[in-house]
Write a structure and sequence with these properties.
Number of strands: 7
Number of helices: 4
Structural class: alpha+beta
Largest sheet: 5 strands, mixed, barrel
Strand content: 15-25%
Strand order of the largest sheet: 3-4-5-7-6
Order of helices and strands: HHEEHHEEEEE
Shape: rod-shaped
Distance between the termini: 83 Å
Mean pLDDT: 86
């Protein structure tokens, strides 16, 4: 009963910030526990009309809304006695909540990038320019080697020449097709 009496003695504004902070904290802890044990799912809250989507990631979701309320509530509690204007405190608490929301959205977006399949396939190189590493004989008679940069990584591939002239080491070529596996067909630039 002591807690309830102490809480009821607080002003209405401070009670509001405490309720938001405690509820958001409990939801945040539940979300964290569920994430660690594998029950991680997030519902987007785009309302059907507004599109808050950024590259397949919903900026407004249960997780980001929880973080907004976490920042908003705890800022209100911590700065209640320091900021005398209720309007100014609400604005600052809202700004901190928005900052929390955007930071968690950016963090979750970066984590989702780790989930992408970045497996290299030779087909991804069609149309790219490459450097000849080992000369490539003419008319598809034998393979040579090229190096090509894709998504910040350098890949070495076997290459066949589509033309009638030998392509020397150091020349620039364009990849025009995949012949088999990681062997590509190139033409001199």
């Amino acid at each position: 009963m002591d807690f309830i009496e102490s809480f009821s003695e607080l002003s209405g504004g401070l009670q509001f910030y405490w309720i938001v902070a405690v509820v958001a904290s409990v939801v945040f802890v539940i979300q964290a526990v569920m994430t660690f044990i594998g029950f991680d799912s997030d519902t987007d809250l785009d309302g059907g009309g507004a599109d808050f989507d950024a590259d397949g990631f919903h900026i407004v979701s249960v997780k980001t809304l929880t973080c907004f309320l976490l920042g908003f509530g705890w800022t209100g509690v911590l700065f209640w006695s320091r900021i005398s204007s209720g309007l100014a405190l609400g604005f600052i608490a809202g700004a901190v909540g928005l900052l929390f929301m955007l930071l968690i959205a950016l963090l979750l977006r970066q984590v989702m990038k780790l989930n992408k399949d970045n497996t290299f396939t030779a087909r991804q190189t069609i149309g790219l320019t490459a450097d000849v590493y080992l000369r490539i004989p003419a008319r598809r008679s034998e393979t040579g080697k090229i190096t090509v940069s894709l998504n910040g990584s350098i890949h070495e591939l076997e290459a066949l020449n589509a033309g009638d002239e030998i392509i020397p080491t150091g020349a620039k070529v364009r990849i025009v097709d995949v012949v088999e596996g990681n062997t590509v067909l190139v033409e001199k630039l």
